[in-house]
């Protein structure tokens, strides 16, 4: 896995093309660590992508075949690897963007679902293929998929393990956009430019508020919303935004 910071963006690239960027336990731990150490004072966003013709094929099947562990050991490993990645993505203080250069399958699909934004190449395919090897979705898939695509479609994906194309993934809100052929990089760059012009601290507050309110009652949700809005009112970005509006100029959130 390659990690580089450039123009206030952390780029994370899976680099196991021979295995279609399958996620081993070590890769999952490394990815989680990279996401857990994000500094919103120096970064605006994170982009995750893959090398070759796949985003990620999910879990490493060869490693599964060689693994010998008790049920308790399996539980602890899943929670400390793929579960840790899901938590790191969902709680990251920066927008996380999945740049889906190719197939996103199994845990690869779950990673796309956990991201804040997902843009895909036209030939990318998506599948919750866990059932094909007798497993259930992990890396947060049972949490995020129903919220993104609805209960029936989440069950369809999880129960059949069949692949869907990028166009259907976009229609289901699994991804934001299918980029035209050869324009995935440009589409993500346009998004990053937009995000860079927004106040990072306030984006983090909005993300946390949205995630916390999933599944809450209306009354409880509105109380939490007021809490986060109160925090936002007390930021430099809010003051700059108001002043810029009154002065008829674009806000400068840097």
TrEMBL record:
Keywords: Lyase. Coiled coil: none annotated. GO terms for molecular function: lyase activity. InterPro entries: ClpP/crotonase-like_dom_sf, Enoyl-CoA_hydra/iso, Enoyl-CoA_hydra_C. It comes from the Archaea. Pfam families: ECH_1. The keyword Lipid metabolism does not apply. PANTHER family: ENOYL-COA HYDRATASE, MITOCHONDRIAL, ENOYL-COA HYDRATASE-RELATED. This is Enoyl-CoA hydratase/isomerase family protein. It comes from Halorubrum glutamatedens.
